[in-house]
Amino acid sequence: MSIRISAFLAAIAILALTGFGCNGNKVQFADAQIDKLDLSQGRKVTGRASGLHLFGVIPIGVNERQSRAYERMKGEAGSDYVTDIKIQDVWRFVFIGQKYNTTITGMAYPVKSSSPNPPAQTMTQKLDELKALHDKGALTDAEYNTARKKIIGD
């Protein structure tokens, strides 16, 4: 009788461990406001992760593969925002169980710069601006001469 109880308890323990081993976290995709992104500079980013169901029962790296693939894709994107996300999950039988491959792809876009860079001033423009400030009395003669030498490179 005790052998039957031991076998029964062992079977329940195996089923419980198998059930707990099949839990995974949801992947939450970050929201991006499309109007704030520079859509002219997009690039494709990819993240991949695999797992194995050993003998069809023991999960090895199966449960969190979507999360791992998403984190790898975000790492490739760096500080850019990822949109147009696609998930491909493929599995196949191998000699010792089932192999699962997850590939997550998306387009990474940088945030638009908040202020466009002003065009660089020529030396003549800088000198004219400096002269105008001097003529208005905003700069003393000494300040004017020091700034002028800095612009000219003396």
| Distance, first to last CA | 102 Å
Shape: rod-shaped
Low-confidence stretches: none
Number of helices, where a helix is a run of at least 4 consecutive DSSP H or I residues: 4
Instruction: Indicate the structural class.
Output: alpha+beta
> Any idea of the CATH topology of the largest domain?
Translation Initiation Factor IF3
Give the radius of gyration.
Answer: 32 Å
Name the beta content range: 25-35%
How many distinct beta strands?
A: 4
Please trace the helix and strand order, writing H or E for each element: HEEHEEHH
Q: What is the name of the CATH class of the largest domain?
A: Alpha Beta
Tell me the CATH architecture of the largest domain.
Answer: 2-Layer Sandwich
Oligomer: single chain
Q: Summed up, what is this model?
A:
This protein is α+β, with helices and mostly antiparallel strands and 154 residues long.
Structural overview:
With 154 residues, the protein is of the alpha+beta class. It folds into two domains: 2-109, Translation Initiation Factor IF3 (2-Layer Sandwich); 123-152. 38% of the residues lie in helices and 27% in strands. It has helices spanning 2-20, 65-77, 123-136, 141-152; strands spanning 43-54, 58-60, 81-94, 97-109. It has a four-stranded antiparallel sheet. A hairpin with a 3-residue loop joins β1 and β2. The model has no long low-confidence stretch (mean pLDDT 81).
